[in-house]
Amino acid sequence: MELFYYVVFGAMAAVVAVLELGGKSNKDRITTSQAFNSFKNNYILVYSLMMAGDWLQGPYVYYLYSTYGFGKGDIGQLFIAGFGSSMLFGTIVGSLADKQGRKRACVTYCITYILSCITKHSPQYKILMVGRILGGIATSLLFSSFESWLVAEHFKRGFDSQWLSLTFSKAIFVGNGLVAIIAGLFGNFLVDSLNLGPVSPFDAAACFLAIGMSVILASWSENYGDPSESKDLLTQFKGAAVAIASDEKIALLGAIQSLFEGSMYTFVFLWTPALSPNDEEIPHGFIFATFMLASMLGSSFAARLMAKNSPKVESYMQIVFVVSSASLLLPILTTFLVPPTTVKGGGISFSGSIQLLGFCTFEACVGIFWPSIMKMRSQYIPEEARSTIMNFFRIPLNIFVCIVLYNVNAFPITVMFGMCSIFLFVASILQRRLAAIADKPKAEDWTALKERDTEADPLNAP
């Protein structure tokens, strides 16, 4: 493997080490309690196990399907089924989480994803399709129920609101960074070193999910959304839609999230052909680990930012979106500025090296984005329907990703990157608007909206 990869990885590892060790006193300047530290560590343990179950699967899904003899078109349909089920069922499972309990929803995530892993043992297309549908439902629960449980439980236990940023940043640093790197290396060990086959990472994922579920059952308490709506799922839908439509801050947050995550998931499909347009031999696993290290760098930087009162999250995220937009322009710029090579195979090209640095910058922005968007969601989304609203946000995201997957061969890769760059720039504009109105009070709070809706439709009154 070329020295370039080691240099990039080593440089970022050194920066992360400096931020974590040198910035420790800054982050710990916020005085916390022993009870909070125990609560935070418990959540980070569970979140890390959940993410280990997710990260172990990611690098091997496409490869497993291809070993079963399916072509690109069939595999594309399987991926579309996953995102489609997340879109169709996401809002329903989010509402059920608010209605039936967030702890139950987290346990349901574990069970659903374990069943999805089991289906990977079958080469039958229909069974694999069922597995993708189950995986889509699980993804919706992963990115809504756990955060909803954390925020509700944090305030139920009387912890300071500023302490939430500590849990968010550390969970992303460990779960989306360190665990991702370890999971990638562990999966590679199972498949390549032990020769257990491409299904072995899915079995390992099921084990981690089972362990996490046992910790949840043993140590988590239950919390809910608005109890007055616990008998009416449709009312929960209507209430969430009214909250989004009536509060510009919630609507802006949803649009920003969809634009950024849509670009992020598109990037996942594009980075490999971008770095190896002429079938260059690139170390996919090592590059993935490098991206995750860049994400760790971003989350560590975000922890330092959120530990201070200035700049506010709403302000610095404008810069993050602009930087991420510029980083995804590099594949377009190198196409025009760097002479293309027609030599097949070999190592990474000069333009590929430049793009790799840009992609690492984008991943660092992703690392800043996750804890920051969690912080903003905890401020603006009403507790009563948190999971429902968060899954509403994922509807346009999943539609966008499905369209991209369906048309992935219809446009040049530069057009796709250009589209993502534009979306990220629009996100920066919307973030600027959110920062401008962040301190303005809402026109109506959740209780007022609910009372007004009940008066308009007394048949839905509890």
UniProtKB/TrEMBL annotation:
UniProt KW keywords: Cell membrane, Ion transport, Membrane, Transmembrane, Transmembrane helix, Transport
Membrane topology category: Multi-pass membrane protein
Membrane-crossing residue ranges in chain numbering: 6-23, 44-63, 75-97, 130-151, 171-190, 202-220, 286-307, 319-338, 350-370, 391-407, 413-430
InterPro entries given in the database record: MFS_trans_sf (IPR036259), MOT2/MFSD5 (IPR008509)
A Pfam family hit: MFS_5
Subcellular location: Cell membrane
Leader peptide range in chain numbering: none
Record's function text: Mediates high-affinity intracellular uptake of the rare oligo-element molybdenum.
Family listed: Belongs to the major facilitator superfamily. Phosphate:H(+) symporter (TC 2.A.1.9) family.
Protein name per the record: Molybdate-anion transporter
Protein source organism: Datura stramonium (Jimsonweed)
